[in-house]
Predict the 3D structure of the following.
Amino acid sequence: MSNKALPDYSVHIMKPEEYIFVLLLSMGACFLIGLTFYGNIILSLFFAPIGILYLPFYKKEQVRKRKEALHIQFKDALYFISVSLSAGKSIESAIADAHKALCGIYPDRECDIIKELEIMNARIMMNEPVEKAFDDLAQRCGIEDIKSFAGVLMVAKRSGANLMEVIKNTSTTISEKIEMRQEIENIISGKKFEQKILCVMPFALILFLRSTSPDFMEPIMTTVFGHIIMTIALIMIILGLLLSRKITNIEV
């Protein structure tokens, strides 16, 4: 099977309409931020193109979400594979059964785990070792648990170990890690909400002062020194946002 036809989980290829929508949204947000902090349409128009810098962050976030979804889907696939192995079927037949079962759970044919199981079944039909198919998925997705499983499966196949126990234990381990991550997310969800509120507060405060005390804000909005002060304040807000996101982004 050609590598060009295989999904690459390390990159997010944006469709034209998605690219245009995200670009317009980010540039529009930068324009509004510039208008809020500088009160000058011309300066805001020059500030708007900075929104282009958001595209790499957007792509990285989409890659993270896709890998996270695949991680959960892979856990479900291992469960159905272990059930079929418990019934005495071979690993090759178990993968085919898992594909059928997951088609009922994930009706979207573009679902990553559905496509990956179809790729595995096609490779098995071409007499390719099943452990090689899992190893290829592990290399393309870069998910540590899938890499570990592929390595363990390869050793188990060579040594003649009990595949049912190997897959069952791996599925249990992945499930525990996912549950732990969800518990951590629930614990820090309140802090993340506070973080969002704190990020919005400076903008709300500036708008409030501009609407209630325009004379007080006029020197900041109309002088070069005022623009410098507002630029420094904006940079500090952005750095605070990035730092808070890094703190609350806990890897399990």
The chain has a mean pLDDT of 86.
